[in-house]
Design a protein that fits this description.
Blueprint lengths: L10 H14 L9 E3 L3 E3 L4 H13 L6 E3 L5 E4 L9 E16 L9 E17 L4 E4 L9 E8 L5 E7 L3
Length: about 170
């Protein structure tokens, strides 16, 4: 805690942090920079990150395909092997590109912090059981937002696949 409020915080983001704490068997809730396949976390922009990504990718089984419909209002998830405990399809709405926030109080008062691809909303679209399924894609909270679709294990929070649809 550095004495300033996170202007991007939302209750559903806190819940995701708690889910990752359990899945990664961490002592405390934190904001990980990068979580790889729901199995490990790493700092961003390091050689260790690339090595961890390559190592986890080598373990991956064939993921289900994700396809956006031409109209941009539906997303399909193909068939595949669902993990034990099932999976869910999640829409992550974010503002693409950099944003700068000036910190108004605390240890970092007066500093500017640069954020990239800030998440604005997370919505579970429904379960994925291994069968092909089509989901309605909710409208983005704002027209300048893009959406990432994740197929994520319910138990270990591993991302089975992901795809991005640019701002609509």
């Amino acid at each position: 805690y550095l004495g300033w409020a996170d202007t991007f915080a939302r209750p559903e983001f806190v819940q995701r942090q708690r889910d990752y704490r359990r899945a990664l068997r961490l002592r405390n809730v934190s904001t990980p920079q990068v979580v790889i396949d729901g199995r490990r976390q790493a700092p961003a922009n390091t050689r260790a990150l690339q090595a961890a990504i390559d190592e986890e990718a080598a373990r991956r089984v064939f993921p289900p395909e994700i396809e956006f419909r031409e109209t941009g209002d539906r997303v399909g998830v193909g068939s595949g092997r669902a993990p034990d405990g099932g999976a869910e399809v999640v829409a992550v709405f974010y503002t693409p590109g950099p944003q700068t926030v000036e910190i108004a109080s605390g240890d970092n008062r007066g500093q500017k912090v640069r954020h990239v691809n800030v998440v604005r909303a997370v919505q579970v679209l429904g379960p994925w059981t291994g069968r092909a399924v089509l989901y309605d894609l909710p409208d983005a909270p704002s027209t300048d937002q893009a959406v990432a679709i994740l197929v994520q294990s319910r138990t270990d929070r591993r991302i089975l696949n992901g795809a991005v649809l640019d701002a609509r």
